[in-house]
Write a structure and sequence with these properties.
Elements: H1 8-17, H2 42-54, E1 71-73, H3 79-87, H4 98-114, H5 124-153, E2 155-156, E3 162-163, H6 185-202, H7 217-220, H8 227-234, H9 244-259, H10 264-267, H11 271-282, H12 302-306, E4 317-320, E5 324-326, H13 328-333, E6 344-346, H14 348-353, H15 381-385, E7 386-387, E8 392-393, E9 398-399, E10 425-426, E11 444-446, E12 449-452, H16 453-468, H17 480-491, H18 499-504, H19 508-522, H20 529-536, E13 544-551, E14 557-565, H21 580-585
Antiparallel strand pairs: 1-6, 2-3, 4-12, 5-11, 7-10, 8-9, 13-14
Length: 595
């Protein structure tokens, strides 16, 4: 991903040098060398920053989806299953971001306090460019880690205050006062915005080689006239690191969270603010015209993935992980007949959320939905994201039978520990050309999409609908309606005109429901659903359902919906807890209500 991370052994050494303590509040980071050693050793200094990259919170697996109405897992030991079914406590929290984010912020604060003294280059002008870029990265990464802290731990106290987390912008040492109160949610949002702006001011929009004439004016004015010098610091070799464009997207994510129903009364952020921050990202790709026609299947665009140059991003992707050769996702999620463990089982709830190909919800009388042929004429995304009964999967396009009449362990609730509990298997994120069969063990290239343009388009649609109504544009050139129309057209809905969309485009409430559903579909299995339900204050306790499919004597299939897994969330769980161990240690650290 980034040049300083090419050598994993070197990074491991840095991790050991600056190993985060079991508890971030343990007073000192033990190491064998003083911080001063970084001043004349740029590689050593970058190793400190590298830890904040290593600690990034993005997941390649759809872990949190099994804690929602979108999926269940067949792994009885899964922490998210336990959480969703009644075992979520302040000292047993799979969603906690507390330690990892605070560890990363400690590294970033060390870096920011010392970077000005590092001899990045003996040439003073190049040293300035290096320092600008690396300082910008640190501010941008601190905004990322702070956003995830706020997402997981911000909430209302018993006395009605919306709090975030303690804002720590200085290195903590043995002499620090660790008994710090939580800042308000609004102050935390502002801190993210402030760090984001500093990063945007210091970072290039994107890393890439330029010609002499394209050197940014701020460096031309300092005397940088050779593109080779600029490219050495900000060129192609740096692609994959955080950029100004990425930070703008993080700012938009933060604004959407803060404007949402769960936080809006105490955040100081409006829907219009959120719409404008999202538009700032989208306007850079010319708005609607920049929507990638293949963006909905970014994980399965094999030629595109296989041809990615180091650090380069496809049109759909704002930020991604390194490309790695693997079949781990497939081994975990292929049906058992394909040597998979079938871990993530999409729910009937999610399947029902996909409309018909004509755009109507399946509950609408005009949809044409057939209960005895439920997968016919559906939104094409359904079978791109979910393996339904009779669908194909794997390198040989094997037919997967999940009905009770199936003859192997792919069938519903077979006693092998790997069969589906819902009647569905996962397709999204997986490459069909992988083969976990130990005889072949075929691996292919994958990457994690950290931030996609589709996410930001949907953020804009949500915020713009609330701020201006479905067809209002504010100061922008496109509306929520325009965005939803483009996304549904890309998906293949309403080829002869999206009549359902046209019927709701003047109704804010109906458009809100449609936007939320489109977000559910487009971002399924990318770890959004849990956080979206909470920020919307929607029902967390919808039972996850499945479908039992039996073959009758006449050969026809009978479809019977089944309850699969109840949810056991309490009202206060719309806001995650501060870790119980931290509350026990510090008098000034207040818990969110209910925990």
């Amino acid at each position: 991903m980034i040049s300083v991370m090419k050598n994993s052994i070197k990074l491991l050494a840095f991790l050991l040098l600056f190993a985060a303590c079991d508890d971030i509040f343990t007073p000192a980071i033990e190491n064998n060398r003083g911080i001063e050693a970084m001043y004349n050793e740029p590689t050593y200094a970058q190793g400190i920053l590298a830890n904040a990259y290593i600690l990034l919170p993005y997941s390649a697996s759809p872990n949190s989806d099994v804690a929602t109405d979108d999926a269940v897992t067949n792994d009885n030991a899964n922490n998210y299953l336990r959480m969703a079914t009644g075992s979520w406590t302040a000292n047993d929290n799979p969603m906690s971001q507390w330690q990892g984010r605070k560890n990363a912020i400690q590294y970033l604060n060390i870096f920011l306090e010392n970077t000005d003294q590092v001899v990045w280059s003996k040439d003073e002008l190049i040293r300035t460019m290096y320092n600008d870029r690396l300082k910008g990265e640190a501010y941008g990464l601190r905004a990322v880690h702070m956003y995830y802290l706020l997402l997981a731990h911000g909430g209302w106290t018993a006395d009605g205050r919306l709090l975030g987390v303690p804002i720590i912008t200085a290195t903590e040492s043995a002499s620090s006062d660790f008994d710090q109160p939580r800042n308000t949610f609004q102050e935390c949002v502002q801190q993210i915005f402030d760090d984001a702006q500093k990063a945007i001011d210091l970072l290039p929009l994107d890393f890439g080689d330029v010609s002499d004439s394209a050197i940014p004016s701020k460096y031309k004015n300092l005397g940088i006239t050779n593109a080779g010098d600029y490219n050495r610091v900000n060129g192609n070799i740096m692609r994959g690191r955080i950029t100004g464009r990425i930070v703008e997207a993080v700012r938009a994510q933060t604004a959407l969270l803060a404007a949402s129903p769960a936080y809006s009364t105490g955040s100081g952020v409006t829907w219009e603010n959120a719409a404008n921050y999202a538009a700032a990202v989208l306007n850079r790709i010319n708005g609607i015209s920049g929507l990638d026609n293949n963006g909905g299947t970014w994980y399965a665009n094999f030629a595109e993935i296989n041809g990615l140059a180091s650090g380069a991003t496809p049109r759909e992707i704002i930020w991604r992980s390194d490309v790695g050769q693997s079949n781990e996702l497939e081994a975990n999620n292929f049906p058992p007949s394909l040597y998979g463990r079938g871990r993530i089982n999409p729910s009937q709830n999610l399947v029902d959320a996909f409309p018909m190909a004509n755009g109507y919800p399946i509950t609408d009388s005009q949809s044409g939905y057939q209960v005895d042929n439920p997968y016919a004429n559906r939104d094409p995304r359904l079978t791109k994201y979910v393996v339904v009964n009779g669908g194909v999967q794997g390198p040989n396009n094997s037919t997967i039978i999940t009905g009770t009449y199936g003859t192997n362990n792919d069938a519903l609730n077979r006693e092998n520990g790997y069969s589906t509990r819902t009647g569905y298997y996962l397709r999204k994120l997986l490459r069909s050309d992988c083969n976990p069969n130990p005889q072949y063990n075929t691996q292919q290239k994958h990457y994690t999409a950290r931030i996609r343009y589709t996410e930001i388009f949907l953020a804009y649609a949500e915020a713009a609908n609330e701020a201006y109504g479905p067809t209002g544009k504010g100061a922008n050139n496109y509306s929520a309606y325009d965005v939803v129309k483009a996304i549904r057209a890309r998906a293949g809905i309403g080829a002869n005109g999206d009549v359902y969309l046209e019927s709701v485009k003047n109704d804010k409430d109906k458009m809100r429901a449609l936007i939320r559903n489109e977000r559910r579909l487009e971002l399924c299995f990318e770890n959004f659903r849990f956080w979206d339900l909470r920020r919307w204050k929607e029902n967390l306790n919808e039972t996850a359902d499945g479908m039992r499919i039996a073959r009758q004597a006449d050969g026809l299939l009978q479809y019977t919906p089944i309850d699969v897994e109840n949810r056991a969330y309490k009202e206060y769980m719309y806001y995650g807890p501060i870790p119980y161990s931290e509350i026990q240690k510090w008098n000034n650290l207040e818990q969110n209500a209910g925990w």
